[in-house]
Design brief:
Elements: H1 2-22, H2 29-49, H3 55-77, H4 84-103
Membrane topology: Multi-pass membrane protein
Subcellular location: Cell membrane
Family: Belongs to the drug/metabolite transporter (DMT) superfamily. Small multidrug resistance (SMR) (TC 2.A.7.1) family. Gdx/SugE subfamily.
Length: about 110
């Protein structure tokens, strides 16, 4: 259950990051509300997952999902550049997430 919550928390981190980008500095109401609701939900799920998962693994995986997911979102939906170096960086983040999961013992 903790891993499911952590995964959902990471997805919600992508949601709030994308909504924050669309909020235009918190001047657009709907994206601002989505940002705040997704942030609270993401932090709550992360806190729940951390009740049983190791801090280092939980936090690293949460931020990794958010970072890699926000990168993919930016490339697919915002027209951000997909360069070989940026792609390699995203691959390394995902590799780090997998290694954290494998080394967590849970």
């Amino acid at each position: 259950m903790a891993w499911t919550c952590l995964l959902l928390a990471g997805v919600l981190e992508i949601v709030w990051a994308a909504a924050m980008k669309k909020s235009d500095g918190f001047t657009a109401l709907t994206p601002t509300v989505v940002t705040l609701v997704a942030m609270v939900a993401s932090f709550s799920l992360l806190a729940f997952a951390m009740r049983t998962l190791p801090l280092g693994a939980a936090y690293s995986i949460w931020t990794g999902i958010g970072a890699a997911g926000a990168f993919v979102f930016g490339v697919l939906f915002l027209g951000e550049a997909l360069t070989p170096i940026r792609a390699l960086a995203a691959i390394l983040i995902v590799a780090g997430i997998l290694l954290m999961k494998l080394s967590s013992g849970h």
